[in-house]
Amino acid sequence: MKLARVGAALAIASIVVGACSGSATTAPSAGGGASAAPASAAPSAGGGASAAPASAAAGAVDVKIGIELPLSGADLPNGEPTLNGVKLALAQIPVPGFNVTLNVQDDAVNGVHDPQQGAKNIATLVNDTTVMGVVGPFNSNVAMAEIPIGNAAGLVQCSPANTNISLTKPEFGALDLRKTNPDKIAYVRVATTDDIQGAAGADIAYTIVKARKAFVIDDTETYGKALSDQFVATFTKLGGTVIGGSSHGVPKSGQGDFTSLLSLAKKDSPDFVFFGGVTATGGGLLRKQMVTAGMGAIPMGGGDGLSDGAASVKGSFLNLAGDQGDPNTYMTVAATHDIPNPTKLAADYKAMFGAEPGAYSASGYACAQVILEALKNVGGDRAKVRAYVTDPSHTYDTVLGKFQFDKNGDTTQRIISDYTFDPGTKDWKFVSQKDFGAG
Amino acid sequence: MRRRPGRALLVPAILLLLATLDWSYMGTEQFVNALTIGAVYALIALGYTMVYGIIELINFAHGDVFMVGSFVTYWLLSSLGFNGTISDLPLLVVVLVGTFLAAMVVMGGIGVVIERFAYRPLRNAPRLAPLITAIGVSFILQNIIQIFFGPSVISAPQVMDVQARVNLGGVDVSVVKLFVIAVAFILMIALQTFVSRTRMGRAMRSTAIDRDAAQLMGVDINTTIAVTFFIGSALAGAAGVVQVLYLGTTNFQLGFQAGLKAFTSAVLGGIGNITGAALGGFLIGFIEVNSTVAGFSRWSEAIVFGILVLVLVFRPTGLLGQQLGERA
Amino acid sequence: MSARRLQGGSAPLRLLPGALRRGVERFAGRHQSLAVLVGVALVGAFLPVIVGVPPFSGFGNRNDFVDGFANAGVFVLLALGLNVVVGLAGLLDLGYAAFFAIGSYAYAYSASPFSHLDVPFWPMLLVGAMVAATFGILLGAPTLRLRGDYLAIVTLGFGEIVPVVFLNSDTYTNGTNGISAVYQPSAYGLFGIGSFGFGNPWPYYVTVLAIVAVAMMLLYRLQDSRLGRAWVAIREDEVAAASMGVNTVTTKLLAFAIGASTAGLAGVFNASKLSLVSPDQFGFTVSFTILAMVVLGGMGNIWGVAIGAFTLYEVQSVFLKQLTNFVHGIHLPAVDLGFLRLDISAIDFVQYQFLLYGLALVSMMLLRPEGLFPSRERKRELHESAEEAAESNEEVVQA
Q: Is A315 helix (H, G, I), strand (E, B) or coil?
């Protein structure tokens, strides 16, 4: 019976705890100085930087923008800068008549983005009737779980970073994801797609590095494998050879031991190594071990999965690759580099959050701009916001420049930017960008 | 006792033959790769096999002991200010010896603590209980490291020059790899000597054979088991140092996969058998590298676990193991 | 009546006062299946009501909660199945998520645009359960001769192999992308609902309640049957059981099969609800979570395990988040230990849920291995052997 008493005490304690914090989440933030009220915890280092919404006027209608990003654990460096981009946008852009705050949901479970959690989060956002639109998700496999739900509910999502082609293009199965309302899409993205990102990677290898023999590795994940496969296809088409004919996969949860794979590569003397994957699944380690294996002089390339900051940023690709691995590395970003006002954005971001903007901060900002623009034009009605955002005739003038969304939700800004390592700044340096034109 | 001398040489002879064949298939560099990664698995496998031999517990947390060992190494090296290759040879030697000692002693201590508080109270409980506890301890270790060091992959300083090569018969082989293999062999031989020639080693062997009889003969069971855990965990700590030296990286989830593969090695070689564990470790290293060379890098995990299953089903005593009787 | 008591009292009944409890126990003893049905129905009706009441109403709105309950139902099914294997038969299965994966992929393959097949949901429940049961036998067969720990490792190995196979078999499983746009169940116009759709959690909730009720009824039947007693027998002493005529081979295989079948049910349901199946949903952490639920709930006790699973799931998805909010709100100062900085108010408890599970498991094993809602038999077993051994140790020492 002692256990029952302990159990009862615990139960009561938990209810008290819940009550104390529960009240905080339902109180709508009103008036100036209100912080962007998270409905769930988002542990951010810049926690002190609560975005005071620019349009905090009394009598204004309270609406929210939903956030669906990975915000904890290993995925925090991806989600947080993006979230901060949205917060910056909210602070800088007033929407008259509306008091815009955030409903933040974290889709990381045990530090890794989880599609099931994402689905739950989208359902939560759908059920919050003040949410007009959602910025997110970050990861393509999470988007696959979320798009059907958003589509059925008519809640528009703008992803700053999804690049998988099956999310929007009908010829790759996207229609099945929007079965409920095939003509009323509820998903747009400002990042362009992996088919051209993989092609851009091959382009770097063939045209910039002038490589003719490539060794391709992927991390057996959705993003990485798709990228590698595209690289292989394009590189071969351009006239190069891929050792082994296709991409070599590394088991997802390996120890980060690429030595035997690299010894295999070394045998055939490649002049380029391409890694489809992200830093967390081994990008940085691969480069470090290339140096160990004596392959440091061979250039290495990857996609935006390697775009996570300068060499001084702990845990970033450049940081893990080490001083000897950093030179001769390339990566692509599925967005334009030539944003209209990079210095202003960086300065504003730094002033608000005390750090450099992340790779997708501008994209997060742009997505927020899109939703706010819709709000400005059609008011606080979820269905109208969706209709406005997904209307192909609307042009958005954002921090990323001017673009539209096509009828599938893809951005018309099909630009891939190429970057290489700059030994001077120990950070990525822009090389060139390629506009792949209208889809 | 008349024993046919040929029998004893059969296993080593077969192994030598297979090794030579494999070497001609893979080439020297991959051969050395396999030996190196095999050495790491062997060091971890020794801990598994020793603990299982003495208290019949699969210490799930052992792989995470290895992981914590690598973090101890990382923390030590970065706190002391080393962030790259040490070129001064005497200093390098001092640092290496110091790091190995520190990591091994610390991890040995942690192993003893875990045994004392998580496993000893359950020594007489049904088998399920300590097994579940071990899984719990594994998750606890992982998360403690995650709290203190964060979830991202860590780039650890590699104090040995990873690009130094030595020429062996026309092929340039990495010095670090040879060092790792040498360290592993030294430790394994030291362990074997300890177990077969010292009093404590005798105590360990007798406890493994029959705990009650050993107790009747005056062996202090608690101390013996504690020493076993100490040594096993120290070896895992050494493997952690090797991980940092050789691969220059660690992360809080390293232990799970490495632990499973090391356990596979221990089982393959014959659980409870020290030579078997070492042999198993190297075999698993070779299997992994061979699958990459053959183009099946995607499947290497599944292959290793498939082997685990097959060995357990068809020959649970492993390659060198003795027939263990039916015990409840 | 005495047979009923031996099985271990039902967990929720302990909370009732004496006379009421005896009345309910007598009813449950005589009309067991009906009791389960009523119990599940009562719980099912109670839950959506209580979440409308503060403080729970502050955590989220009712639809969110019901959606969470439907997801919790999946874990309840999984825990019920693992309970058969681990709790009743005493076979430690560490790769249970493999059967969950098999059930999910079975349905996803049969009802998605990927395969161009469209088998309806309801028959697929049965088919999924049977497919999983078959694999339960296939994966269990090699383990028959193995003792507890080896068995655990082999099942762990299978638990690792199955997702890797699904990951790399692009033609059948679409590899790492998984199968998306899996079709949802349909009620064919009953109660005015056609296809269950995405916005409304209630049909899913009711469906999972029904599946759980049916599963529990069948499991209680099994527990009281010869098979159930055979399971307990081999759990306690396999050699003695064999010598009393229990066919250990069939008994164990059936334990695996039936345990796997509820995982199959859970998999089919989950695949249809999430509409997406991918290999990374079935890792060791899932198997570990279900094991934690079974252990904490009370190995061997069907209702106990169900409650344990539900509670753990809600702790994980609701309570930890609220705890994090609470701790952030009270602003504890950070503790600086030199190199390492411990900032309690910045800890996200959701992230460290596995630390909590680990601590909980270790403490449970040390203090109360029979779980929170133990079956009385199990309790006796677990504490008896410890007592026996302590006694024999004393004898040895005194000798």
A: coil
Give Cα A186 to chain centroid, integer Å. Answer: 18
Out of A177, A179, A225, the one facing C176 most closely (by C-beta) is: A225
Interface of B with C in 44-103 (CB under 8 A): 52, 56-58, 75, 79
CA distance A426 to A319: 9
Which amino acid does the sequence have at B298? R
The 10 Å Cβ neighbour count of residue B175 is 15
- Phi-psi category of residue C222: left, alpha or beta, with phi > 0 → left and psi -120 to 50 → alpha: alpha
C119: how many CB neighbours lie within 10 A of its CB? 15
The structure tokens 């800890």 sit at C347
| Residue in B closest to A322 by C-alpha | B155
pLDDT at C336 over 70: no
ipTM of the complex: 0.84
Instruction: Kindly identify which residue of chain A lies nearest to residue B298, measuring between CA atoms.
Output: A249
Contact between residue A68 and residue A122 where contact means Cβ atoms under 8 Å apart:
yes
Neighbouring chains of B at 3+ CB pairs under 8 Å are: A, C
Query: Does the beta-carbon distance from B292 to A280 stay under 8 Å?
Result: no
Look at residue C346 in the predicted model and tell me its pLDDT: 66
Radius of gyration of chain A (CA): 22
- A102: β partners: A65
Closest residue on chain C to A223 (Cα): C177
pLDDT confidence of residue A39: 33
Region class of A432: left (phi > 0), else alpha (psi between -120 and 50), else beta: beta
Task: Say how many C-beta atoms besides its own lie within 10 A of residue B4's C-beta.
Answer: 8
Q: What pTM does this model have? A: 0.85
Write the CB contacts of A188 (distance below 8 Å, at least 6 apart in sequence).
Answer: A156, A157, A158, A159, A370, A389, A390, A405, A409, A410, A411
Contacts of C54 in chain A (CB under 8 A): 19, 22
| Residue C398 parent element (H or E) | helix C376-398
Token pair in block for residue C245 = 């005529």
Confidence of residue A132 (pLDDT cuts 50, 70, 90): very high
For residue C154, what is the enclosing H or E element? helix C148-168
- Give SS3 for A372: helix
Tokens representing B72? Answer: 């101890």
Place of tokens 């891929």: A242
- The residues, ordered by sequence, that sit 6+ positions from B296 with a Cβ below 8 Å of its Cβ are B303
* Interface size between B and C, measured as CB pairs under 8 A: 147
Comparing CA positions, the residue from A170, A182, A139, A185 lying closest to residue A360 is A139
Q: How far is CA C55 from the centre of its chain?
A: 27
| Number of neighbouring beta carbons within 10 Å of residue A233 | 16
Mind listing the pLDDT tens digit for each residue in B279-319? 999 999 999 999 888 888 888 888 888 888 888 888 878 88
Query: Beta-carbon neighbour count of residue A31 at 10 Å?
Result: 10
Only one residue has tokens 């007592």, namely C387
CA distance, residue C58 to nearest chain A CA (Å)? 5
Which residues 141-160 in chain B show a CB within 8 A of chain A? 146, 150-155, 158
